[in-house]
Backbone:
């Protein structure tokens, strides 16, 4: 498998680490030999070679904040031109998420699919906005379009729906899709104010300096939209669903709920109602006996209500360098492994 990596930040580098570490395992178990032919990154610079680049050297340079443009096989062009010209079997798209426009990732994905490459992305923007268009393009081109990392990073969710739960009717998917807000709510239950909990989340690197995407629920909303579109086949956009974040929950309300045996969680959910697919993001009081109530800190979790197995709950990481890099790795194995 000849691979192109577009966006060489946290996730791109996490994947590179795994490709190096698991090279032998990929060969022995999955009969998969991955050669990275190109890396395109706006800030760090780009490298490309038809015969493969030196991944370990590129990773070392990126970690040391040295420009990739100073390495052998430096590429002097933007990501789009590399994708259009590359001789590669698969592209990993891991540039930043723009949930309002899906740019520039959607353009990268379209170009890679047009060029006959399988695609895996961890970027929520293109999925929440253009899932059906991109999936149709992939089908027309006879390639795979995979995006495991967009919901709960590498924790198995989308491949679970696609494969293991394929024989079940799923009536509802509901859970904790944003680690930052779950961390803040957990801290507030310990007696911290919202402001102090947010500050702590920022210090730990969970929350951005401008935390709106997390605390107003937009990040969870993007994931709910992806679950509705890719999981339930609905033609929906994020604006179709009501969305409320955690900014209006007070420490008093949390303490009062606790006294009644309940716990506030920011819940993202999609469910079927007749022929319709509904979705929402909002704080909910969850009964302490429900598996989602026990999910504290930055952990994520999703409960699938199925006709065959009852409730199935997946608990796991929702972010992280290796965890999200792993989502791309598992998609690469699905696309190219045996
Ligand atoms: N980190 C996680 O835990 C996690 C979890 C799930 C999903 N994701 C998603 O995965 C994606 C990557 O996340 P990340 O944490 O790796 O972000 P990151 O560390 O900011 O890396 C993104 C990289 O892509 C580069 N880039 C941006 N626009 C580009 C373009 N047009 N052409 C080439 N390179 C471009 C960025 O360069 P500049 O520095 O110049 O912008 C940056 O180096 C995001 O969409 C994110 O939402 C991340």
Residues:
């Amino acid at each position: 498998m000849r691979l192109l990596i577009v966006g060489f930040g946290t996730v791109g580098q996490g994947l590179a680490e795994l490709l190096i570490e698991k090279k032998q395992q990929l060969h022995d178990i999955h009969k998969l030999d991955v050669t990275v032919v190109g890396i395109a990154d706006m800030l760090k610079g780009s490298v490309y070679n038809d015969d493969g680049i030196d991944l370990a050297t590129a990773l070392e340079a990126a970690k040391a904040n040295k420009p990739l443009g100073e390495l052998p096989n430096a590429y002097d062009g933007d990501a789009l031109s590399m994708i259009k010209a590359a001789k590669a079997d698969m592209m990993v798209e891991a540039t930043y998420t723009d949930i309002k426009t899906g740019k520039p990732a959607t353009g990268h994905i379209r170009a890679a699919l047009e060029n006959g490459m399988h695609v895996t992305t961890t970027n929520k923007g293109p999925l929440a906005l253009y899932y059906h268009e991109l999936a149709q393009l992939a089908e027309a081109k006879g390639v795979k379009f995979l995006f495991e990392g967009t919901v709960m990073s590498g924790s198995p969710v989308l491949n679970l729906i696609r494969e293991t739960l394929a024989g079940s009717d799923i009536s509802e998917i509901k859970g904790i899709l944003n680690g930052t807000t779950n961390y803040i709510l957990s801290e507030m239950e310990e007696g911290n104010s919202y402001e102090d909990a947010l500050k702590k989340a920022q210090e730990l690197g969970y929350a951005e300096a401008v935390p709106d995407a997390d605390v107003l629920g937009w990040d969870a909303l993007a994931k709910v939209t992806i679950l509705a579109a890719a999981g339930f086949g609905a033609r929906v956009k994020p604006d179709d669903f009501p969305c409320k974040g955690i900014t209006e929950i007070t420490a008093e309300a949390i303490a009062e709920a606790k006294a009644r045996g309940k716990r506030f969680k920011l819940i993202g959910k999609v469910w079927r109602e007749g022929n319709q697919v509904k979705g929402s993001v909002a704080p909910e009081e969850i009964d302490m006996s429900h598996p989602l109530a026990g999910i504290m800190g930055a952990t994520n979790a999703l409960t699938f209500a199925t006709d065959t197995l009852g409730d199935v709950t997946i608990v796991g990481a929702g972010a992280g360098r290796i965890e999200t890099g792993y989502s791309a790795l598992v998609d690469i194995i699905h696309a190219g492994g045996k």
About this structure: The CA atoms of residues 202 and 329 lie 28 Å apart.
